[in-house]
Amino acid sequence: MKIVFIILLSTQGLLYVHEPIPDGKKCLEVAEEWRNNNTTHTWEVNGDATLNGYYVNEGHPLQGSRLIATACGTTIDAPQD
Predict the structure, then answer these.
(1) Contact 10, 74 (CB under 8 A)
(2) Are 1 and 74 contacting, i.e. CB atoms less than 8 angstroms apart?
(3) Which one, of 71, 58, 64, 54, lies nearest residue 17 by Cα?
(4) Most CB atoms closer than 10 Å: which of 19, 32, 48, 70?
């Protein structure tokens, strides 16, 4: 199965969210949809312009985390014993 990895930076370190890519859609389309639905862009945080970027919205379990990257890939099945 093809998936898109959404990579977030939080106070707890890096967090990885994965979303399946439906047939007929492209990886970056799914990543863009996730970003549009779950984040808000800010130009600065507490007056610091170096902290501009997309942050996960309030009310979301990962609120406050900063979106730093996306990557496309496939699931990796665990070896069978």
Answers:
(1) no
(2) yes
(3) 71
(4) 70
User: Which of 15, 34, 10, 16 is closest to 75 using CA atoms?
Assistant: 16
Question: Exposure pattern of 25-52 as b/e (b: 16+ CB <10 Å)?
Answer: eebeebbeebbeebbeeeeeeeeeeeee
Per DSSP, the three-state class of 16 is: strand
Cα torsion angle, 70, 76, 65, 25, sign? positive
Domain boundaries, the chain: 2-74
- Dihedral of the alpha carbons of 40, 41, 46, 48, in degrees to the nearest 10: 160
Please say if the pLDDT value at position 71 is more than 60.
yes
